[in-house]
Amino acid sequence: MLNPSDLAAVWLTLKLAGTATAVLLLLGTPMAWWLARTRHWAKGVIGALVTLPLVLPPTVLGFYLLVLMGPDGMLGRLLAAGGLQPLPFTFAGLVVASVIYSLPFVVQPLQQAFEAIGEQPLEAAATLRANPWDTFFAVVVPLARPGFMTAGILGFAHTVGEFGVVLMIGGNIPGKTQVLSMAIYNHVEALEYEAAHRLAAGMLAFSFTVLLLLNALKPERVR
Amino acid sequence: MLRQLSLAVVLLSAASVHSDEISVAVAANFASPMQKIAAEFEKDSGHTIVASFGSTGKFYAQIKAGAPFEVLLAADDETPARLEREGEGVAGSRFTYAVGKLVLWSRREGFVDGKGEVLGRNDFHHLALANPRLAPYGAAGVQTLQALGLLEKLRPKFVTAESITQAYQFVASGNAELGFVALSQVYRDGRIAEGSGWIVPPQLHDPIRQDAVLLTRGRGRQGPTALLEYLRGEKATSIIKSFGYER
User: Fold this and answer.
1) From residue A83, how far is each of A49, A57, A79, A80, A86 by CA, in Å?
2) What is residue B245's DSSP assignment?
3) CA-nearest residue of chain A to B82?
4) Which positions 130-189 of A are in contact with B (Cβ < 8 Å)?
5) Is B160 strand, coil or helix?
6) Residue of B nearest to A185 (CA)
7) Residue B139: CATH number of its domain
8) Does the beta carbon of B62 lie under 8 angstroms from any beta carbon of chain A?
9) Domain check: are B232 and B184 in the same one?
10) Residue A138 has what DSSP assignment?
11) Do B134 and A186 touch (CB under 8 A)?
12) Do B31 and B91 fall within a single domain?
């Protein structure tokens, strides 16, 4: 039913969204924790920076990432100095771009979940001589579980639906950087509406199912 | 008072007969020449042009959905023909307003030689081109490589852009060492403005015809017809050529 390049795009999209979500949770958790707990003057600045990817249109954000990662860009030079491959037109480049693009969708729910916990559980843990790591994994993570679920779902869904950024960074290479949204767009632009409808419907049905399942797994908030 | 008002209405409506506001959908690659032509046309005719720039495929979908465009300046010759067949374009109004020229371009001086022999050397990682399924310039690039017998060898180095604009950005930002772009993107004052390029001989690929068509919404209106006439004229032709297109 799907041609091989469309299938490759589906697989690549899942791989990208999965990788990006994992990286986002790893990076976003300490960031959100810091933002939730700190009274540092830079809190407002960092918070605003994290939200900034929402402001730029995706293709524009993608354009600047392309310039930044290019041979003249700061990031591009840094990588070249470290003997690393340039990022544009690679899977790694897509992951970096997706992480930047989806950062607010992961940090915001986590920050709110952490803030909602309040001081008391942490103080209680401290009086029981739990060290900060114990406290985090035994108290904070279980209490913030709904926040982690929301962050993961939003990060994943946002990466699946991402288009403008990956279009700029990716170069549309089948099997390597051509993700689902690009495959659909190509069909639409080539006036192959049938193929586009099939892929889009499949993508919607799949995403709906996943979101439904995740929502069913989400614990009810204890009042 | 009433008489003055009705006089004003009469004057206004009389004025609107002679100066239409023309809604034109223009292929993105033709944006710069169109702005110049529009300024001249507005000065000469008194009509006003409201131009939207974008991809021809998107314009097709929008026109089919009832978008209020009166004239389409497409990036290909297929879309106008298709619109005419499907009743959205006025029969017999189609003509080629510009023929695009393909150039193999690098922003590095001296990287692309005057014969395109750089393609045979293996000293680049990425060759940018517009998606050959979507953009005539991309298809022309593929045909050129095929004619040179290099297509299969170079295919793994392709980075495909959604439009010729994006292909240009890939090369201009240095992320792809070279790429097939439209001459109009790099051509100023009769020469390639920066970097190095090889203007691909036209016999290596199908001609890149860009056709204009009058859409049914513009039928019978003075402005759109006048604009299409103007595009065929001497003034527009010399502007079009100065941007690196043929006629």
Assistant:
1) 29, 32, 6, 5, 9
2) -
3) A191
4) 167-168, 171-173, 182, 185-186, 188-189
5) strand
6) B162
7) 3.40.190.10
8) no
9) no
10) I
11) yes
12) yes
pLDDT one-digit tens code per residue, B139-171:
999 999 999 999 999 999 999 998 888 999 999
Using one digit for the tens of pLDDT, what is the confidence trace for B45-79? 999 999 988 888 888 988 988 888 999 999 999 99
The secondary structure of chain B in percent helix, strand, coil, rounded to multiples of 5, reads 45, 25, 30
**What is the distance between the alpha carbons of residues A102 and A141, in angstroms, rounded to a whole number?**
21
Question: Domain segments of chain A: what residues?
Answer: 4-217
CB contact under 8 A, A189 and B162: yes
DSSP class of B47: -
For residue A106, give the nearest of A199, A22, A207, A208 by alpha carbon: A22
Report the alpha-carbon distance of residue A5 to residue B103 in Å, rounded: 29
State pTM to two decimals.
Answer: 0.78
DSSP character at residue B65: T
- Structure token digits, residue A21: 């979500």
Q: Which of the four CATH numbers 3.90.180.10, 1.10.3720.10, 1.10.260.40, 3.40.470.10 does domain A4-217 have?
A: 1.10.3720.10
User: In terms of residue numbers, what domain contains B51?
Assistant: 2-99+209-242
Put simply, the answer to whether B133 touches A72 (Cβ < 8 Å) is no
